[in-house]
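User: Second chain of the day. Same drill as before.
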Amino acid sequence: MGPVYVHIENADILLVVGTSLSVAPASRLIDHAHIDIPKFFINPEYVSIPDDIEFINAKATDGIDIFIDRVIQLTSCEKSQYMSQI
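Assistant: Same format as last time:
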């Protein structure tokens, strides 16, 4: 297994941008991400992806802004949950 897969297995979040997911190695990246991390896929055309991946239907330049907003939302929710447990 190459070093990129080790990084993906240890990632806190996964972002895949602009691929059909039909050609290796990009097609195998999502399979190596931990099941519990947020996963995002930015692409201007719909591609069949697993249900646990959030599809952002946009060009990369627009989709990255949507991705950033979603990460901020996720981290805000996590912070609120953490603070309510203290």
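The domain at 3-85 is CATH 3.40.50.1220 (Rossmann fold).

User: Great, on to the next one.
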